[in-house]
Amino acid sequence: MIIEGKCWCYGANIDTDALAPMGSYQGENVLDGAKQCLRDVDPRFAKGVRENDIFVATENLGIGSSREAAPLFLKALGVRLIL
Question: Which residue has better confidence, 75 or 28?
C-alpha cells in the first residue's frame, strides 16, 4: 500500500487536550469538533489537513486524559496514517 499525502510533523507530548480541546465535542457532529483539533499547537492544522495526510509525532502522542474524540477528530479530518 502506498499512501501519499502531506506530513504534519510534531514533537513529543501531543496530548489529548491538544487533539480534542475541552468543549470542542459534545457527542454530535464529529467534524464540527474536529475543527478545533490542535488549535493551540498549530492553528493551521484543522483547516489545512486533507484526506490521506499523515500525522507524525514523536513520543507520548495522546498522553493525558482519556478523550475518545482525539482519534475521531484525526480520522474525521482525513488523516490516513499516524506515526
Answer: 75
